[in-house]
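Hello forum,

I keep getting stuck at the same step: I have a sequence, I want structure tokens, and every attempt I make locally crashes halfway through. Rather than fight my setup again tonight, could one of you with a working pipeline run this one for me? It's a single chain of 471 residues.
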Amino acid sequence: MLVVVLLVVVAVVAVLAGVHWYVWRRLVRDTTARGGVARRVGTAAMWVLPLLSVAALVSGRAGAPFWLERVVAWPGYLWLAVLLYLVLGLVVGELVRPLLLRRGRVSSSAPPLLETGGQGPRTLEPSLPAGSAGATRTDATEASVGTAPAEARDAGTTATASAEASAGTVRTDATVASAGATRTDAAAGPGAGGQRTLSRRLFVSRVVGGAAASVALGTVAHGTYGVLRGPRVKRVTVPLARLPRAAHGFRIAVVSDIHLGPILGRGHTQRIVDTINATSPDLVAVVGDLVDGSVADLGPAAEPLARLTSRYGSFFVTGNHEYFSGAEAWVDHVRELGLRPLQNERVEIGAFDLAGVNDVAGEIEGDGPDFGRALGDRDRSRASVLLAHQPVVIHDVVEHGVDLQLSGHTHGGQLWPGNYLAALANPTVAGLERYGDTQLFVSRGAGAWGPPVRVGAPSDITVVQLASRHA
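Reply #2:
Ran it on my machine without issues. Output:
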């Protein structure tokens, strides 16, 4: 087992090293001058930023002081999000780069190049290779120029003037050809009058790199704003075959994956509480992954949950991150805040049963889901709703005849194209789907894990309205 873990760690490190080398190559080496300030700064950043990301990922598990976690979390996690979209942008740039370079080669052979020097603009003709017709003509003409003055002295003043004029023309052509060769071959150097010129390859590298960086930074900035602004309310109606008419229109506010931690704190909790209370729900369901840290560090951040209001109260089930953060202590703490934990148990809420199971991550501690305890002896003629953090338990839930499962965990993928990866591990990534006689609703969550960024999967709080088919 240890060998497998080490192999995975080595593979991850190798991938991250390769990705950072690729970004450095395209964004730093290909766009800056060797030994320049920009090259040194970019290279230093390619070392510091990944180290901050690693520190952000491991500091909490390593027992680092909470203040240190907060210091490294923002730059470390945000760089991971920027890195993702930088790589995607640069990969797209690889498709565009050959087209831009080819267009540049075609364009450079058609019109003459203009340089501005101290003597005004001069037209530079493209250089010709040695031994070509143009070069032979120039050499021959220069040879004739060398003999022209002697012949002119015998022929008279008129012939002398004519030869001098011819010589001046030939010398000008030769000089221009030489200047054209120098101008064409130089990657980046001074032109006439001190004007610097860029090679086409350097110009294209800067355009592609700049475009990729701009898109990545803009995407991450917009995704960060969406998380810090707070979740939006979604509404979905779910008809249940066994729900009596008396319970028609019952509203459950479902919130999952709040992820209080070194970045999202008390203000984030307060925004969520205010949003839930504004919907006036009949019941509040907190479906796991409330925290990323200990009660000692994050207890004050969770305190606004005590102000949740609803007709039938607020209920809580554990997520996998509670088991990384001290699940037993958090269960006790949310109970103190007025939420009722459902640990493999159920309660009767009016005309239907509400059950909750522990997260599957608790199996490592012998505290995993127990569907027999939560659902085994219930009256199956009554409608039932189950709270379970991870959607993967849906098949067990179907076997127990549950009408509706409410889950989270997936974040809807959080960072596109992460939704495709989430779909590989979860039966439903977001929204409402049916499995046999059981319906599964998966929330995208109200917070964010790791980078406080969401792209293509905005955070939400969902008001699930139960509908009776007898109404």
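Confidence is low (pLDDT under 50) at residues 109-195. If your local run keeps crashing, start a new thread with the error log.
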